């Protein structure tokens, strides 16, 4: 195109129109491919803890120049919410939500609400549109929530189809509604980390799901020869609503797990030796895949093992009351998910 313009065989306006059309064709092709891949289930997702508010803020900041060039006003009101989601899918979902809104409007507002149990975390997207009775210029549509003559909503299309398919692949609930002068999109995140009374916890499943039953029936075995440490850990877990039993030795632990295997082990660092490795294999079988949370003497940098299990989650002895509950909840959730 640049050559044709330079040779005087095409006007710049014509070249721009053709370039824009080619870009739209490429964009359409890419979105169609994404929809097909998501629908086929070929995309493997690895769920991890995602700070959704920070992610949304980062994505909007990275596109601020794009929004300015398009004369678009994209606002956000974000409460701190952490969810269990595949990080790349989370990034793609947020960007596609914005793309969907900007495909028929110039004003988009994203509101992330802090969950109040039993409701999940919700992302509300309000897209401003002209009134329903707005008159369109000849050959143009109004961009409203209404329908075209053929009966389709004006904000249907590949953007919406990709958004819906992406949410379905991540087990998210998407609802769309309309109001005078606005289109409203609601995305619910049932796998949400909750926070109350200074204790972070996680509610991963809706009350009527099979996962909820599994999580309610799960229990934790605490192994430590230190009576004080063991009592503190048990009290903390029970305060967080987690069933737990304590053992002062591996021999006592074997007795406790004879009829019912635990879902997660909390073990003092001094007990994590070769005998414990054998015990872990005996308890769980299949190579000893039971999640483990280690209680260390010194405060470690707080982290979870993630879904791949390459690391052991660690909590410092002085951090038990603050961090043991949410750490164990995360490990339990992965074990029953």
User: Number of helical segments?
Assistant: 11
Cα-to-Cα separation, first versus last residue: 53 Å
Q: How would you state the average pLDDT, rounded? A: 75
Q: What summary fits the major beta sheet?
A: 5 strands, mixed
* Rg measurement, Å: 26 Å
Low-confidence stretches: 135-152, 196-202, 204-213, 302-310
CATH class of the largest domain: Alpha Beta
Structural class: alpha/beta
What fraction strand? 15-25%
Spatially, the strands of the biggest sheet line up as 2-4-5-7-6
Please tell me the CATH architecture of the largest domain by its name. Answer: 2-Layer Sandwich
- As for the number of domains, it is 2
Task: Kindly report the CATH topology of the largest domain.
Answer: Heat Shock Protein 90
Please estimate the helix content. Answer: 40-55%
Shape by Cα distribution: elongated
Q: Strand-and-helix sequence, N→C?
A: HHEHHEEHEEHEEEEHEHEHEHEEH
The CATH fourth-level homologous superfamily of the largest domain = Histidine kinase-like ATPase, C-terminal domain
Could you characterize what this model shows?
With 337 residues, the chain is α/β, with parallel strands linked by helices. The chain has two domains: 45-192, 2-Layer Sandwich (Heat Shock Protein 90); 205-336, Response regulator (Rossmann fold). 40% of the residues lie in helices and 23% in strands. The chain has eleven helices and 14 strands. It has helices spanning 2-6, 12-40, 52-62, 64-69, 87-102, 158-169, 210-217, 227-239, 250-256, 274-284, 320-336, and strands at 48-51, 73-78, 82-85, 107-113, 121-128, 173-179, 182-189, 192-196, 199-203, 219-223, 243-247, 264-268, 292-296, 313-316. The strands form three sheets. Strands 2-4-5-7-6 form a five-stranded mixed beta sheet. Strand 6 and strand 7 form a beta hairpin. Helix 5 packs antiparallel against helix 6. The protein is elongated and about 85 Å long. It starts with a helix and ends with a helix.
